[in-house]
Amino acid sequence: MVAVLALGACAAWRWNAIRVADAQAVAAERLRVEALEQRMDALRRDQRAQTARLQQAEATNRLLREELIGLGQRAALLDETVQKLADPATDAGQSLRLDEVELLLAQGQQRLLLSGDLDGARRAYALAAQLLDGIVDHARLDLRQALAQERAALDALGEDPGVAAARRLDAFAAALPALPQRSAPAAGEAAWWDRLLSRLVQVRPSGEAQALAPDERVAGLAALQLELALARAAIERRDVQAWRAALARADEWVLRLWPESAGRAARRGDLRALQAHPLSPQVPALGSTLGQLRRLRQA
Fold first, then answer.
1. Domain spans, the chain
2. pLDDT for 159-182, tens place per residue?
3. What is the dihedral of CA 60, 62, 65, 69, to 10 degrees?
């Protein structure tokens, strides 16, 4: 019995010792884990601090690099200025003449494109050629040749397309009153009762929807004149879309105001031809001399 109690006491002591040792091991592991976590936190803080310092150093380097680039550009500009001052061929008088040539070429181009002033454009280009001939520089030979070709293209132009379009539009408007207001009856085809009833009843195709009433006709003629005025305004602005739209609406009024006839077909053909008529002169070489001069001055 004593041996059994001793054996039980020994087993209880051993189990207690094992439990205490396990608890101590768990506590030690917990302490090690906490220490590792503290070291990890410290490493993260150090990493964030290093990242901030690297970003600050990168920003400083970028600023220094931009300052160095700016210093290099300023030095290049100073070098170029010194070279220009040392070059006797690029004096102030020549630069002023080139400025005048560029201004005249730009004015001639804008006169032709915006207002269709062909004579003004020719005068501006002639003055530019005189100024360019006064510059003694063999490097400007290609520029003189380009200007001569552009002047030849301007001289080869005929009448201003806008003026021609306005004249043809006036001729169209002048020919409208001569159109017959009623369809011509076919001779020998209508019976006597048709001719008698035609004085009381008039039959016309419903698709044309002609304005035969006096008030409608007066309003239609006023609307047609308004469309022709809008077409003339489009010529002044060189607005091709507004020009074609006004002529298309005028064609609709021609259909409503006059019956079918050879004259009406001719006037509608005139309108279609006017819609295809250009409003601005077509000069493929226009602006080539100005572009070449600007490239030479930039180079």
1. 17-86, 87-158+284-298, 161-178+207-275
2. 777 888 888 999 998 988 888 876
3. -130
